[in-house]
Design a protein that fits this description.
The protein is an alpha/beta fold and about 525 residues long. It has 4 domains: about 110 residues, 3-Layer(aba) Sandwich (Cobalt-precorrin-4 Transmethylase, domain 1); about 120 residues, Tetrapyrrole methylase, C-terminal domain (Methyltransferase, Cobalt-precorrin-4 Transmethylase, Domain 2, 2-Layer Sandwich); about 120 residues, Rossmann fold (3-Layer(aba) Sandwich); about 130 residues, Rossmann fold. The protein has 19 helices and 22 strands. The structure holds S-adenosyl-L-homocysteine.
Amino acid sequence: MPTTSHHNGFVYLIGAGPGDPGLITVRGRECIGQAEVILYDYLANEELLRHARQDAELIYAGKVGGAHNREQSQINELLVQKALEGKVVARLKGGDPFVFGRGGEECEALVAHRIPFEIIPGVTAGIGAASYAGIPLTHRDFTTSVAFVTGHEGRDKDVSTIDWERLSLGSGTIVFYMGIKNLPQITASLMDHGRAPETPVALIRWGTRPDQEVLIGTLADIAGKARKTGFKAPAITVVGEVVTLREKLRWFDNRPLFGRTVLVTRAADQAGEFSRLLEARGARVLECPTIRIAPPESFTGLDDAIARLADFHWLVFTSGNAVTAFFDRLQGLGFDSRAIGPCKVCAVGPKTAEQLQAHGVRADLIPEDYKGEGVVAAFADRDIRGLQILFPKGDRARDVIPAGLRQQGAKVATPVAYRNLAPDSVPLPVLTALEERRVDCVTFTASSTASNLADLLGENRFLKLLGGITVASIGPITSRTCRELGLEVDIEPGEYTLAALTSEIVDYYTSRI
Ligand code: SAH
């Protein structure tokens, strides 16, 4: 139970996990969302800050490579001060707050001022990085114990104060934090105290992140290898026979897109799904929203159609956005899915059909070819002469469907249900990555993603920044737009889905090795 006190200030000491933002705890994420002030560390992934309240005060309290941006005492003071002002404060620390994180000292300061607090543990780097390197820290065949040790002791001490005698032979696996600078002394001390020179060692830098680096060696040669390759902090050092298991158990940094940076250009609210698919294959994904979905300039057309919904025989949806826009408006007008009545529904592809399912509607027709032409072809098998078809569309939709269906004798209403607008600018991290040539592949999942990005960057800069980068397009229409804009298309799947595009990108990179 938190201590009672006269103010409402409260501090959450939150373990942010080792890097992968998915490795924070559920409780940790909740508390980030409650905080009015967030003090975050160099090692806490900044992506976690998107869980913060819009109005939260974000304070960087980082330390970079030992050069303390703020002294620990200043951090303690700041924590205390904000809490005494009555604020709910989150102290977000890399890994676990109580493992070499000076969380203990911060807590002591809180106790001294009778400030109530809660500790939310995190996945510590030693455990997270080892897992993502495919190294089990214990294993029945190799070792029954593991020790976490600092490779960088406090101010007036140094690593020589460690009881090397007991450590060298007393623990099966040894995990050093902050040990890269002292690697020559650490490895020498272990060998001097009886650990075999051929003991396997792994260095894991930025473990669990898309830029994780692993260097393997032995006690005898790892320090030399690290020097030669310029291996830098932050990294953990794992010493012990279990390191050999990586060869068999490696799973993260050998994924097909590991080390590749892929730019996803999509509507902000849709980027997630494609990004997850790419990330599951190991890619580092940068999201660049190029479309902002907005309501139509006027709802008159859509409202008229909804008012006479009973007249229609078919409803046609060519995107999840159209489904969302249509049903949102339906509900806004006081109706629900039942308003569709016996009207049949066509969805351009499985994803759009899934969106319909969310509204309790099952698609009666999904064409074999997931695009406008496919919809027209699918209706060609039926007699739609004289039928009324409602096609709630985006403002940039092509005319293929209305034209094709009218040719087959149907009456087609095409109210605009939503608009595709360009956002105001390209996010700075994306621009920087493009300028520094750190992007390997740019993806376009609709013509508008390509033309909007060209508009956003300006045509010259678009070609300059994207020149030489692999271009992946979801299908022939989008590819044509890319070519019209001056890009060559390297990747195009046979089926127009995000899953197919993802595996085509994987094929492209795996066949190139
Ligand atoms: N409280 C943190 C440790 C802070 S000490 C935790 O529980 O993880 C800082 C050291 O942690 C770094 O010098 C490095 O040795 C290690 N570290 C933190 N994040 C790391 C990561 N993603 N990969 C490898 N080592 C990391």
